[in-house]
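Readers of this paper often ask what the protein records in our data store actually look like. Such a record has a labelled line for the sequence and another for the backbone structure tokens. The tokens are whole numbers drawn from a learned vocabulary of local backbone shapes. We quote a single record here, exactly as it is kept in our systems:
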Amino acid sequence: MRALEIVSPGSLALVQDLGRPGYAHLGVPPSGALDVAALRLGNRLVGNPEDTAGIETLLGGLTVRGTASCTAAVTGPPVEVSVDGRETGSHTPIPLRPGQELTIGRPATGLRCYLTVSGGIAVAPVLGSRSTDVLSGLGPSPLEAGTTVPLGPVTGVPSGTDVVAASPAPPDLAVRVLLGPRDDWFADAASALNAQWTVTEESNRVGVRLDGPPLRRVSTSELPSEGVLTGAIQVPPNGLPLVFLADHPTTGGYPVIAVVRRESLGALAQARPGTLVRFQASL
């Protein structure tokens, strides 16, 4: 049996693919990898289809042992990767022999690294996805030491890319957004969003919580719950915005002032507490 044994999960290790979109009417979040580009790259490096499931780690610390020969890759922010204690580097295909242990260190910047393995993590899918959803509890449980996850059959060959340059997560972000649907509920929405915001420690896979100058509402209307998207910037009564990530609830009762453009979501998912954020409204 081709499998990975979890020697140490680090602070949090979750199975993630590209999620289960299309079930919002059932109250099911899309879930999936928060840094989609990193997961796609990792799968290309090991010869998998880009939507194959891998392991998303929070602040590294993951150690796995393969039961069969396979190819692995670690993507996301730059991070130390070792096999049986020998440094191999990230963002490159890594051959593993049976019994060898791969360890992901703690990234100097960013939050989430992705381990992909040839054949992919082949746990049973739920609603068409192998992703762990921390809000609803769908999908596999967070990985624990001593557990084993199966690997699927190898369907491709590792890419010819020997090394892919990895960029460290920046200390401040300029995030492009589309205003609406409730931007008219706030005073000068575009200018107010362009203030300096700070990512807080309460952020997680559900959303990025921000601190800064509270947004001022000009509408006192009551809002019935309405559907929300990944990237929606919801403003609760305290005026401090919350940017929904992949495990967000499918409806919300607070106004959404803007929606983050899809290409900026990966950078937000890698933003550590203390990262500075400015939102830039665009057409």
About this structure: The mean pLDDT is 95. Residues 24 and 255 are 18 Å apart (CA to CA). Helices lie at 36-46, 189-193, 265-269. The longest strand covers residues 172-179.
